[in-house]
Structures are given as structure tokens and as C-alpha cells.
Amino acid sequence: MFLNEQGAEPDLSQRGKSTALHAAAFYGHANAVRCLLENGANYRIKTEANNTPEYEAYNDDIKKGIF
Q1: What pLDDT does 43 receive?
Q2: Distance between CA atoms of 66 and 52, rounded to whole angstroms?
Q3: Backbone angles phi, psi at 43, to 5 degrees
Q4: SS3 assignment for 24-49
Q5: How many separate domains does the chain show?
Q6: How far is CA 61 from the centre of its chain?
Q7: Are 21 and 56 in contact (CB under 8 A)?
Q8: Residues 52-67: pLDDT tens digits?
Q9: N or C: which end of the chain has fewer CB within 10 A?
Q10: What does residue 40 show for φ and ψ, rounded to 5 degrees?
Q11: How many angstroms separate the Cα of 6 from the Cα of each of 1, 9, 46, 52?
Q12: Is residue 27 left, alpha or beta, with left meaning phi > 0 and alpha meaning psi from -120 to 50?
């Protein structure tokens, strides 16, 4: 992934400790979720609300197909 090659951190969090993986799962972007996981994103990170990306996943297809 281009961002990894440039030194980007896949687990960088924003306010609320949500990561790119949380956002991709929440909005149902399966390809982005897959890409983030393939490039080392940690699926165990929890938000301040104690939610994992799997918990925040938009639909069951995201949960079943990726996590």
C-alpha cells in the first residue's frame, strides 16, 4: 500500500481512539478494510467507547468476510 511505503501508521487514531480500520468497517468499505488488514492494521484496537472495528462494522458481510 502506498501509504505504508511512505511510512504512514495504519493504526493512527483520531479523537475517540477510532482508527482508519474502525471508519472503513463502520462505513462498509470492504476493500479498504481488507487493504488495511493486509498492511498490518490491528483489528483488536478499541475506541474510547470500547468498540472494536468488528463491532462497528456496517453489516454482517463485512464482519464475516473480513474479521
Answers
A1: 93
A2: 13
A3: -85, 0
A4: HHHCCCHHHHHHHHHCCCCCCCCCCC
A5: 1
A6: 15
A7: no
A8: 999 999 888 888 766 6
A9: N
A10: 95, 10
A11: 9, 9, 25, 26
A12: alpha
pTM of the model: 0.83
Partners of 19 in beta bridges: 13
Q: Which residue has the cell 462497528?
A: 56
CA–CA gap between residue 51 and residue 20 (Å, rounded): 14
Q: Whose grid coordinates read 511505503?
A: 5
- Collect all residues with Cβ–Cβ distance below 8 Å to 37 and sequence separation of at least 6: 21, 43, 66
- CATH assignment of the domain containing 6: 1.25.40.20
User: What domain range includes position 10?
Assistant: 2-66
